Amino acid sequence: MKHLFFAIASPILSSVLTIFKTRAIKLLDVPTFLFFNALFGFLTLLAFLGLKKEKLDFDKIKDNKKELFSLISTRYIIADIILVLGLSQTEAIKAIFFTKAEPYFVLFWHWLINKEKVKPAHLLLLAIHIFGAILLSTGGIFTGVGAPQIGDFAIILAMGFYSYSYFPASRLVKTIGPQISNMLGLLVAGIFFLPVFFIFSGSHVFRFSEGWLYLILQAVLLTSVSLTLWFASLKSVKEWIVSSLRAVGPLVGAPFAFFFFGETLSPVQIVGAGIVLTTSFLIAREHLKTNRNR
User: Fold this and answer.
1) How many angstroms separate the Cα of 231 from the Cα of each of 188, 211, 271?
2) What is the DSSP secondary structure assignment for residue 234, as one 8-state letter?
3) pLDDT, tens only, 107-158
4) Which of 47, 63, 79, 178 is 20 to 30 A from 70 (CA-CA)?
5) 239: left (phi over 0), alpha (psi -120 to 50) or beta
């Protein structure tokens, strides 16, 4: 029950803080956000582990280096870059719903890696899901592809890489723990993004702005707390269940975006968002039936 609670709390916190993440990216810039997000998240976890007086087991880390490389390259570097670029071009309230495409990608990796058969019902749900995503992105106005649509597509693409990271993460959390797994990922990502920050960020980023407040808040709560809860949930909850439960996030995140920041969706976009959420729940239920019948 504890790990199931973590699986529910993580997407709720993540959806709410996606609002802060999007605002921080737009007020600062992409390289600045990527580096300092990793840095602040790493320092938060380092302080937490210091209070717990927990030491690193370098033998376990060495034994799991392949899983760590797979996790860090997919989630902390490739997926984060694509997601942040996408968020820089679109609205946060839409992004909250687009991230819920993740269960389909988790099932895709199960089909590819575990050789699960693709059912016609799954393909139908995917087609309906894509239709809902198009309505959410365009609002039913098909005049061309602009920056917001490219940003929306980038967010969905990032979910493909995030979903793959479930496999190495579920193994790592049982050997080196959720906090250390997350901290190592943030450390390597921070080192990777450091030269990118120095080369591509301007001096303007060192002036105080509201963006820094949003960045610090989401880095501490999202990058360290929410992501650690996600790791912890994988200790005993199946990957596809954790992924499907992420659909509960918009139920809190969307009202938060509306009441606190005035972000809204058009009636057509609301229909699209409803389709995205509904199909996410249905695909999770379909997978549940498949596993029960085994």
Assistant:
1) 17, 27, 32
2) T
3) 788 778 777 776 777 778 778 888 888 888 777 766 666 788 899 999 999 9
4) 47
5) alpha
* Cα 198 from Cα 191, distance rounded (Å): 12
Element (H, E) at 133: helix 120-138
Note the pLDDT of residue 194.
Answer: 94
Angle at 149 between CA 222 and CA 124, to 5 degrees: 90
CB atoms within 10 A of CB 130: 16
The 8-class DSSP code of residue 202 comes to -
List Cα–Cα distances, 35 to 30, 218, 286, in angstroms: 9, 13, 39
In terms of Cα–Cα distance, which of 54, 70, 280, 29 is closest to 166? 70
From residue 55, alpha-carbon distances to 49, 179, 204 in Å are 8, 11, 38
Residue 53, H or E segment? none
